[in-house]
Amino acid sequence: MKHPLNLPIDIVVGLPLSDDNILKNPYKLSIAKSQPVFDVAIEDVYYSRQLLSPGSLRITYVNTNLSDATGPQRIIERYCEHSVDAIMGLSYVYALAPLARISQFWYAGVPVFSTSALVDELGDKQEFPLLTRLMGTYKTLGHLSRKLMNHFTWNKVGFFFHDQINGQRVVGRSECFFSLNAIKNNFNHRPIISWTVQMFNEHETKQLQMRFMLKKISIQTNGKYYFVFQNLYSVIILCASPDTVREIMLAAYDLGMATSGEYVFINIDVSTGSHAERPWLRLNDTSSAENEKAKKAYQALKTISLRRSDLDEYKNFELRVKERAEKKYNYSAKTGKEYEMNNFISAFYDAVLLYAIALNETLSEGLDPRNGHNITSKMWSRTFIGITGNVSIDENGDRYSDYSLLDLDPQQDKFVEVAYYSGASNELKQVAEFHWVGGSPPKDSPVCGWDHSKCPEGYPFYVYLLSGSVIFILLLMSGFIYFWRSVYFVNFE
């Protein structure tokens, strides 16, 4: 069926009405949050950037209910009505996947844009040929993690993360599973790195159980059963909600893991992207001592999160969006909460801008603006100036994402960026000093372990042997130097 060439171009945004279901929508995307972003993006495309004439684009919204049945059905209905030229949104990955598969067969192809589909499997462009991912892929996390392991010469790591597990039944994999699985897959290409895994369901696990599971993973790390478990891990990569991460760190504090200086916890915080300066603090916590204990525990924690732009243009954009959310959509009154921007919401601006650039070029060439295959080819392997600065899309349709490595600065009493990873250049760049509980990065295997079981009567024998050898060599060198100087001066006289 030949689609008419007349404007406007129909962009259908499929999102839930609210952002309350963290299980299926960890990025907190919703129609209410996205509407002011799309408004500002369309306004800029028409007027400040002058890429398309006013009225060229028409945005409509459908409620997907975060359902892998309802979501695709709502978009298919628009296809049957000949009112979809591009698809954006679909925060629930199981609803996105079927549409990203079949859109290539609609008309001359319908491009699909996602700001949340970071799952590795969606990078197969034989299966998803028109899917453009504006927040990149979890593979980037794998590259960053390997850089970090190399930087500190760590070759052993334990994965400790949340997944939707209920006995033997798995109700859809969590984003934690997908993100850490990408890291694990990267490590598998470097056989020198060994790893172990401990999963839990944060909706069913209490702090006491967290302590038990940390003990369980530490049995494989602290050498109590050294001859059974040869791989000993003191680098633990975490992934869970902020509240659960706090529970884990409190449990680690109680066990002594967070205060020994022999363990480091690396928190993968991609979905929230909160960049909270004091993530340990809970204002509703009745015990100030508990907050203080959490703060001490967080000294052993590093956090990896998507990097935020500090450009004035982005800050102005954020103010415009928040103002539009209140004045036009009455966001706070309707939702009962303040409008909160994150990377996944703001990326819709870049999605509209990239699409408009490709449409502008297509129309200038006199080609069909509804040929999704042609439009998509113009969007991949290119760099453009977006709301966060330079945005680069690779040859696979995935954005090069940048990540921040955050650390607790004891002087500023808050988490700050100490390093960042550039996806485009594949470089880890340090911008400030790291802070370590023990004064230096821990080894990838603990010397004594959280319960001191590897050092029941002091340090292990090999530590004393090594120390004794060093002292002996130093004494030998001192004796030699003394003897040489004595002989030299006697001969000189």
From TrEMBL:
Q: Which terms in the Gene Ontology molecular function aspect does this entry carry?
A: peptide hormone binding; signaling receptor activity
Q: Which UniProt keywords apply?
A: Glycoprotein, Membrane, Receptor, Signal, Transmembrane, Transmembrane helix
Q: Where located?
A: Membrane
Q: Where is the Receptor ligand binding region domain?
A: 35-410
- Signal: is it a keyword of this entry? yes
Q: Which GO terms describe its cellular component?
A: membrane
Looking at the keywords, is Signal present?
Answer: yes
Q: Which GO terms describe its biological process?
A: signal transduction
Q: Which residues cross the membrane?
A: 461-484
> What membrane topology does this protein have?
Single-pass type I membrane protein
Stated name of the protein: ANF_receptor domain-containing protein
Organism annotation: Thelazia callipaeda (Oriental eyeworm)
